[in-house]
Automatic annotation (TrEMBL):
Protein residues bound to tRNA: Y14, F61, N63, N107
HAMAP family according to UniProt: Pept_tRNA_hydro_bact
Source organism of the structure: Campylobacter hyointestinalis subsp. hyointestinalis
Annotated site residue numbers, Discriminates between blocked and unblocked aminoacyl-tRNA: N9
Name of the protein in its database record: Peptidyl-tRNA hydrolase
Cellular component aspect of the GO annotation: cytoplasm
Residues at the active site: H19 (proton acceptor)
Pfam family, one: Pept_tRNA_hydro
Amino acid sequence: MTLVVGLGNIGKEYENTRHNVGFMLADLLLFDGGFTDVSSAKFKGELFKKGSQLIVKPTTFMNASGLCVKSINDFYKPDHIIVVHDDLDIPFGSVRFKNGGSSGGHNGIKSIDSLIGNDYDRVRIGIGRTKGGVISYVLGEFTQEEKVVLKEILAHCKEAVLRLIQTNDIKQISSDFTRKPADFGL
């Protein structure tokens, strides 16, 4: 069983923010249909199931995402976890993949690591940095120009996640799907 975790914050005010790219990708994966809503208060997230695939959008807010992941991990015991999240440390237009590693200061990843460890695959969608405050930047919306490119990035990441679900080979996915801003015309 594979669990795909799209990280983000709940609420309309966060819907289109940089910090919610994980939610955006989860929605894109769910759009294909066939998933059953198996959400429950005990899972602390919007959880959907299709065959041996689970997709969740935690409802705990970013900084407590680990509570959701741990509850699902304890109940379903997936053998493969994929976490999709924004990454300040790579430029907008970059997409990277890895298993484990440091949280890089990402509070959602820190929360998950503290409760289940870091032996899971990560899809890191670059949002870049700004000279201003980090919180206002990650909770800010993408520019109109960025939104156009973001559609391409999310479609690319969707294909990568679907392949990763099939192969469970993060090294091959990283080789085939890692992208730089120039690959998206930036």
